[in-house]
Amino acid sequence: SSTNENHIPVDPLLDACRALLRVLEQTGPKAVARDFENNIRKIESACHITNRRTVSSLLQVERDNGVHREGKDSCLHLNDQSGAMGLLWIRRTLAFQSDFYERLLEEDSDPVDAINYAYQQQLKPYHGWALSKCYNMMVGKKLPPRKSLLAMFGGYLHHEQHENDDMRFHYEEEKTLDDLKRLVASWRPLIQRWKRSFIELGMEDTRKV
Can you tell me the mean pLDDT for 167-176? Predict the structure, then answer.
């Protein structure tokens, strides 16, 4: 893809988000997956209405058309049903998942510690008290052990009693770790470019929800 943030194409981005949605549906609380899907739909709807196919052009046309309102801090307050709002929260979710996966790559990592770290870094600053409490109830304490979680991500079975002599298990785990490593490496620059587009247009809405 182009190194210019003005050319992040929306269609392949949405394809990747739908793939991630399937992972979230299998590994996370249904409410998280449902919220992610709602944000995908906001972007799809905005693309259909505006006929724009890059992140920055979609943001620009919504800004120019007065879809959002002026905030007190020289940053627009985004319309909740807009494509920009969908893009904002999907980007934050990808940053959260990226931090989580990066921590999970460490051999002695605990998934609960990893996901709580990612939450503190990427989502908690934008969550009000009620949403933070919901997160702690739904996500923060309910994860399987690392090996089982990697098996869920990789789509293979994890049987603890067989793991020491199961060469295939070891191969599948290493392959899954390599896939996660590549995923994080590809997401990082994309997320940075994506965020710059919001900041440059004065649309980085940091209000809590």
Answer: 90
